[in-house]
Amino acid sequence: MKGFWFIFVLMLLGFVCMAIKPVQAATSIKQEFKASAGVTYQDYRINTSARNQAVRVLKANLSDPYTQIKVGIPDPLNKLSKTIARALTYYAPRHQVVGTINASFFGPTGLPVYLIAENNQLINAGKLPVGKTEYANEPIAFGMKDGKGIIAHYNLDLHFVHNGKSTPITASNKARATNQLILYTAKNPSKYTDTSEKGIEVVVEKLDAPLDLTFGSTVTGMVTKIRDYGDKTKTQIPKDGFVLSATGTSKAALKNIQIGDSISLAVDIDTLWQGADFMLGSGPMLVNKGKVDLSMDPKSPNAITRAPHTAVAVDKTGRNVFFVTVDGRQPGYSTGMNLTEFAQFLVSIGAYQALNLDGGGSTAMGVRYPGDSVVKLANSPADGFERYISTTLMAVSTAPNGQPTYIKAHKSNTSVLLKGSSIKILLDYVLDQYYNPVKASTKNLSITSKLGTAKGTAFTAAKAGKGTLTVKYSQAATSLPVEIVDQLAKLTISKSNLLVRNGDTVKLSVKGYDRKGRTVLMAPNAIQWSVTGKLGTISKDGTFTVTGTKGSGQITAAYGKTKAVVAVNIGPDQEVLDTFDQLTNWTVSSIRATAFSQSSTKKEPVKEGKAALKFNYDFTVSKSNTSAAYLNAAKSLVFTSRPNAIGVYVYGDGKNNWLRATLTDGKGKSRTIDFTKDMGLSWQGWKFVKAAIPKDVALPIKLKQIYVVQPHQELKSKGTLYFDQLQVFYGLK
């Protein structure tokens, strides 16, 4: 609760926006669990009237003897991978990746932009941008040393010495830019420097020691080749040597070097970082000594833009490391934060130092969910999918496999149980004492309760009352609440009344409720069914089969003295759906034709009643493809009993058209039925026509439209039809 109010106060002070008036905010933790003994995952949701934020936090407690922080470095260095996929490559026995985030910024060629070191060796020298508007304008890194996380400035010393003169090197294994001096080693993704002729390159081989770039080391070799300015020959990087490549003002440092000269290459780091497990350069610094303190201009465009972000943070002891992501560019779910807002959140969760990492569409976090063996994507990347990224940071558990300690299970139904009913107990997962998943078989699951009996994973209620179900797997145990009643206060049947036809089959279901109005789970055979009247039969599972041809009555469902009834009427075998005395339910549409409808006049044909539907069509307006004119039912005519056919009186005009209808079945599938064959509407005067309904059409069936169609160009004409007494037939053979 203290953490909640702390964040709440931050919000009121302008956490979400920098407006003068504070914005009311609600912060909650949607999900929280332990990914391992030393790593905790939290999913924060921050909601305000202005915007929403989704923030994920992985907290690694390095005081746990089995918890480590590792860096995932591409090999070769420009090989990009998705964050989750990179984590999977580091899995090994007693090296379980339980959490991961994307880390380094990287350039268009895939190479990381800033410093990377591992095992006290320089992997990538990197280069700092110039100016306070850039992310990493100061040399700041996150790393691990002596079991603690460090976020601090560093001083990298990378230089070469020729004839007693020391010259600094700009960067390593990068595309060479103007006025830069670049070191190329065998770790370069290409075998060649791939530079233009506008520079000087010196190849150094025959080293007196392996070139591993260990901090504090110096290696000396001999110049074996020189590529002068203007030479377009590609320079190959020696496997056991290096290349110095300079352009612009930096060429002066290489001009006086001759083949056979001795050159020494030295690399070192300041004392704080010597012996570090790894270093990862990035920026800007977000939190310094527990306070928001950006190492870039907080008003610059990169700093004020709300976007997805990734950060790494440490507490004051360095024994707690935080991986943090905020999603963005997804209005309604998560807008994203500017860097000041992001820093404020980091302070609220206990960050003493915090460093920004690559963000935007690259932001990704993976976590090992309880019961899983590997990490899965936890956040929602801005692009809708994971991007390919460069380096990653990982929280690793080195714990051995232990004994079953934690278990999670759930009931197949959470309702109150009626005595005699049964539920299944479903196993979610079993974990050992280190939160590693245990392969558990439900055959070894035990379920006990004073209120019932268990067989396998099925529990049967035997006694009314409140209690628990104890679920055990070896030494792992959990309790599930259970409540059982032996009486019902109310029953309801799924249908309040039924209009059925001879031969129909209707499946009825029943719901039971206790005195508090709660749904009660009943055994399938708990209900006694009965039918009054000569209507049909009903089975123990509530399946009613209509055998009568007419009449009415009721179906009763009973449990003891508690009953529910449904009225039943057997409908006629034939019904009039529409007399067409009124046309309010019909509209007209057409394809490659014109059409309109109206009620017939006193002098026009009427089969029965006051009027017929007069339907005028003109297919001559189109000389290509099929023409059609439709009568559309504004309110679909629905059949819940299975009809055999639909019929209608049609006053024909002898124009050899095709009369059809469209149905929609219970699965939403459109079906076409025929009143006539192609060219079959050939009569003049009144005729009653039927369209058979296939037996495989799923209920309920909807009549959507009746239409006239002419697929033959030579038969296209215009004319008038009259419709009267639309009917449906049941039980016809």
TrEMBL record:
Name of one Pfam family that matches: NAGPA
Domain of life: Bacteria
Signal peptide range in chain numbering: 1-25
Residue stretches making up the Phosphodiester glycosidase domain: 220-394
Keyword annotations of the record: Glycosidase, Hydrolase, Signal
Gene3D superfamilies: Galactose-binding lectin
InterPro entries: NAGPA
Molecular function (Gene Ontology), one example: hydrolase activity, acting on glycosyl bonds
PANTHER family assigned: N-ACETYLGLUCOSAMINE-1-PHOSPHODIESTER ALPHA-N-ACETYLGLUCOSAMINIDASE
Protein name: Phosphodiester glycosidase family protein
Provenance organism: Neobacillus paridis
